[in-house]
Design goal:
single chain; 198 residues; five-stranded antiparallel β-sheet; two-stranded antiparallel ribbon; 7 strands; 20% helix
Length: 198
C-alpha cells in the first residue's frame, strides 16, 4: 500500500429516505404493472397538469415511469374520465367517487399503489409511451389474459421428419428446429453425414 493512502477514515451519514443510485431501468416492455406514486407535482410551465412518478414493483422493481393528467377545464371536460380511471386504479371505490365533488391533493395520491397497463414508446411510429389506468380487479383479469407482443410474433418450433426414401436410401431421423427456423442444432458435418455424404 502506498504511503499516501489513508485507511483510517470514517464519516457520519444519513441515507434514510433515499433510493440506491443503481440507475434507472430504461427498457420496460408493454405490459401490466403495479407501482407506487413516489412524486406528484405541477410545474410552473404547466400548472394545469399533474405529473406523477411511479416506481414499479415486481420484475422491474425500482424502474421509474413518469406520466401525467391534465386538470379538467370545466365540468364537461372529457379528461374527467381519465381521472376516474386513475382514482379507481389506486383503489378508490365507485361509492367514494360518486359522492359528488371530491377534493384531491398530494395526500390522496402520493404513496398509493396504482394499477396500469404501460405501453412502451414506439419510435417507428413516433408514438410516446403511455399509461392506461385499471381498477385493481379489472387489472388482475387483464394481466392474467395478457400475452406480450414478443410471444405473439415468436414462431413455434415444428419438428421436421425426414423418412427413409426408396430412391436415396436415407436413414429415418427427426430433426427439431429452433423457433427461429434457422437450423436444428446440427452442424454442417452432422447434416451431411445424416444425408449419407462423406
Amino acid at each position: 500500500m502506498a504511503d499516501n493512502n489513508n485507511t483510517s477514515w470514517s464519516i457520519s451519514l444519513n441515507v434514510s429516505g433515499t433510493r440506491p443510485a443503481t440507475g434507472e431501468i430504461k427498457n420496460v416492455p408493454t405490459g401490466f404493472y403495479k407501482g407506487t406514486i413516489i412524486e406528484a407535482y405541477t410545474m410552473d410551465a404547466r400548472p394545469d397538469r399533474l405529473v406523477m412518478k411511479i416506481e414499479l414493483e415486481g420484475e422491474y422493481q425500482g424502474a421509474i415511469r413518469t406520466t401525467g393528467l391534465n386538470f379538467p377545464k370545466d365540468a364537461n371536460d372529457k379528461v374527467r374520465y381519465y381521472w376516474r380511471a386513475f382514482m379507481e386504479s389506486m383503489g378508490y371505490t365507485p361509492a367514494q367517487l360518486d359522492s359528488g365533488v371530491i377534493q384531491i391533493s398530494l395526500d390522496a395520491v402520493k404513496g398509493r399503489t396504482v394499477h396500469f397497463k404501460y405501453i412502451e414508446e414506439d419510435k417507428s411510429t413516433n408514438s410516446r409511451d403511455q399509461v392506461n389506468w385499471f381498477p385493481p380487479t379489472d387489472w388482475a383479469k387483464a394481466k392474467a389474459s395478457f400475452v406480450p407482443t414478443a410471444q405473439i410474433h415468436r414462431p413455434q418450433a415444428r419438428p421436421t421428419v425426414v423418412s427413409e426414401d426408396d430412391t436415396a436410401g436415407l436413414p429415418a431421423m427427426t430433426v427439431t428446429g429452433p423457433s427461429n427456423g434457422m437450423g436444428g442444432g446440427l452442424g454442417h458435418g452432422d447434416l451431411l453425414s445424416a444425408l449419407g455424404a462423406k
